[in-house]
Design brief:
Shape: globular
Number of helices: 14
Distance between the termini: 11 Å
Order of helices and strands: EEEHEHEHEHEEEHEHEHHHHHHEHEH
Structural class: alpha/beta
Strand content: 15-25%
Largest sheet: 8 strands, parallel, barrel
Strand order of the largest sheet: 3-4-5-6-9-10-11-13
Number of strands: 13
């Protein structure tokens, strides 16, 4: 069993101690500028509410916040900057940016500017994206080689080097940042399942890994093993790469809300044939059950994919009823605070260095982070 050392650092009079292995995703779902669209906090958030969620996360002692951007009202740069301006110690993570959505100069400029404004607490999280999400937008899913290229180009620009490049990320003869941050460079992490090729890329060029939400502890352990093996093949210390596991958390929530952010969310993931199949295989789930869920009349009659037609809570009783509750329990933390602590600990025991809440707000996890700090493993017992 893995235990944490030096698990907390002190806070100010209004701040809880920082918990080194516990973080939070914010706006992990629908976003709108109109708060009246959402009856519950887990149904969606406005960008302004997302900024307040970051402030709450610092007060409660979360180590960092992640935001996965969407290209409408959830641009990571703006929201993380808003949080950075209102906090002092909270780490700020793009979880994730797709390199093909920005010129490499802008990726490097983001990291350098964030560090210059708010000190060394920014983490650049990159991911390949999903081909279906880019359809018709003129954007390509990033290739694995391009992920390595992006990390290397970004670090070179932070060092003030001139870069020549011709590839998926663009063509330039002398790309250079003439001013950059004179301090520690931000870590660069990669998001993904880290199958064999992804694990090799992570070991080659990245400081950390953000695994997908809604995978089981067994899938976490398998990914960690692949990452460690990839590091060892190139004589890299596996301990030098941090593995973070997002987990849907629903502590002390009523049945409607808990199932909406767990079962309802799982429907939105499994509905996509490519991503859903990858997720199901990683978790050793029956693909026939997944296909049966996709054939539910509520999904087959929808004019667009399910999560663009319905909210998560509208899919719980329909296609969600096909999904075994045991699947949800195995990849989420649902129930009492103590039950959620036990569920989260399984991912640490599986080899993750850090867990991060997903689908619920930092305030909704206030009692959970307090219990997490007090668990026997945190005290080294």
């Amino acid at each position: 069993m893995r235990t944490m050392v030096d698990n907390t650092t002190g806070g100010g009079p209004d701040l809880a101690p920082v918990t080194s292995d516990f973080s939070a995703y914010i706006i992990a779902g629908a976003v709108s500028s109109d708060p009246s669209k959402f009856e519950r906090d887990t149904e969606g958030r406005t960008p302004a509410q997302g900024i307040q969620d970051g402030v709450d996360a610092e007060r409660l002692g979360f180590r960092r916040v992640f935001i996965s951007e969407r290209w409408d009202l959830k641009e990571a740069d703006v929201i993380l900057a808003g949080i950075g301006a209102k906090t002092t110690r909270l780490e700020l993570v793009t979880g994730i940016i797709v390199p093909t959505t920005r010129h490499p100069w802008m990726v490097a400029a983001l990291g350098a500017t964030m560090q210059s404004c708010f000190g060394p607490r920014f983490v650049l999280g990159l991911g390949r994206g999903e081909a279906g999400a880019f359809r018709g937008m003129g954007i390509e899913m990033a290739k694995f080689k391009s992920m390595v290229d992006s990390a290397r180009i970004t670090r070179r620009l932070w060092s003030g080097e001139s870069v020549s490049y011709d590839g998926q990320l663009g063509t330039f003869d002398a790309l250079q940042s003439h001013e950059t941050y004179h301090g520690p460079r931000p870590p660069i992490w990669i998001a993904g399942f880290c199958h064999e090729k992804g694990a090799a890329v992570a070991a080659e060029a990245f400081d950390g890994v953000i695994l997908p939400p809604m995978i089981t502890p067994d899938a976490t352990a398998a990914a960690v093993a692949r990452i460690r093996q990839a590091c060892e093949r190139i004589d890299r210390d596996p301990r030098s790469i941090r593995v973070v596991q997002p987990v849907v958390t629903a502590p002390e929530m009523d049945n409607f809300e808990a199932r909406s952010i767990s079962t309802g969310r799982l429907v939105t993931y499994l509905q996509y044939p490519y991503y859903g199949d990858v997720l199901a295989r990683a978790n050793a789930w029956d693909l026939e059950t997944v296909q049966k869920m996709r054939q539910h009349p509520q999904l087959t009659s929808a004019p667009r994919v399910g999560d663009l037609t319905y909210h998560r809570h509208q899919m719980v009783e329909g296609p969600g009823s096909v999904i075994p509750w045991s699947w949800v329990q195995d990849c989420s933390a649902v129930g009492t605070v103590d039950e959620c602590v036990t569920s989260l600990q399984r991912f640490i025991d599986a080899g993750a260095d850090e867990v991060t809440t997903y689908g619920s707000t930092p305030r909704q996890n206030g009692a959970l982070i307090e219990a997490w700090r007090k668990r026997p493993e945190a005290r080294g017992e």
